[in-house]
Amino acid sequence: MLESRIIDQLKKIVGDDNVATDRQDLICYGYDATQMEFLPDAVVHPGSPAEIAAILKLANAERFPVFPRGAGSGFTGGALPKGGGIVLVTTRLNRILRIDTENLIAEVEPGVVTEQFQLAVEKLGLFYPPDPASLKFSTLGGNVAENAGGPRCVKYGVTRDFVMGLEVVLPSGEIIRTGGETYKGVVGYDLTRLLCGSEGTLGVITKIIFKLLPLPEAKKTMLTVFDSIDGAAKAVSTIIGGKIIPTTLEFMDYATLQCVEKRFNLGIPAAGRAVLLIEVDGDRELIEKQAARIQELIKPLGLVECKVAKDAAESEALWKVRRLVSPSLRDVNPTKYNEDIVVPRSKVPDVIRKIDAIAQKYAIPIVNFGHAGDGNIHVNVMIDKEIPGMEEKAHEAIAEIFKAALDLNGTMSGEHGVGLAKQPYIPLELSPVQIATMQAVKKALDPNGILNPGKMFPT
Fold this sequence. Notes:
Radius of gyration: 23 Å
Number of helices: 16
Shape: globular
CATH architecture of the largest domain: 2-Layer Sandwich
Number of strands: 18
CATH topology of the largest domain: Uridine Diphospho-n-acetylenolpyruvylglucosamine Reductase, domain 3
Helix content: 25-40%
Number of domains: 4
Distance between the termini: 22 Å
Strand content: 15-25%
């Protein structure tokens, strides 16, 4: 528990109204999208970088932990206050500071909601592509801290590919700027990319400079149904081998299709064993040619059905199949462990077969969908915690799933991060020397271990 004198000092820094210590308030900031819950000692809502700096200086002097938090939509417990301390919420810093239409950049604060930023730049004919599934409520600071991805990554890349510069409060309370407004810059170490994906362990982001693109003129959406996983996976490599890079290539396996069809009756053909949701964007005439060419390329690969949207309304109807996946999963079992492995594109059928074998071994339903264009599969291990032994079996199955991805030259996390959930499995992917090197960076920037302690690395 924090002493009352420390609470008083926090109130002096940010104001009485921006410090919460009542239990009902603490509970709201003690959980995220995982199944884990930890109660903080206090919740603090700073309104400026200077206030954040003062909080971190106080934390170093008094040796209490600080857990940065955006909207709390993470899937790995990266913002959870394990062990107590204060949760530092950045949502008051929620301004779009400027959108520069000449240089195609924008400067924002970390509490801006992702979709609101996208809509703001699109009004000016510009485009910010990263689109995590949580974009309607996740914040840009959290997106940078987790290096968030999304369906459009296959063509445009992940969040770090659009971050040009940052303002960051270091664990010591010092404020630095990294990167800048130029597209080139090689002076010193690339601290910007180091901080992207650091999960709040190396600093608190207070400003972000993003690169923007011109808004594509049009887009074309296709829902394609295949008679096998192999056909769908082959379609991905065939399309890209045909010199077409779609905006999205979303994959759903047979278990996913069964969930969606059972609940929503969308009329997916009975012969369907896998679905690809394909979207291209760009010049209107070009995407019409690309859509036609894609249909030619995939027709011999066991294509059962191909629906092509004629307008925005039909496009939204096709995307409905993908968006209905998550609400359908609860019909399988009440508890979901959502993992996000990545394998080389050509290895997607191999990893799905390995996962099917793991599901049979442990008698646990596992549902797979995700971003086939970059080999990023969301593996959903569905259990009922009320059944004795199921939780233990789930964790054993997850370890085998990670090993399967690694055996295929993949990784155990493509966009969700490590946090607490994947922390025990880190030695499966990283060598002792790799881990020690990363811990040395952490120690150099945070010698007292006050910023988001206990995350990422094995303890």
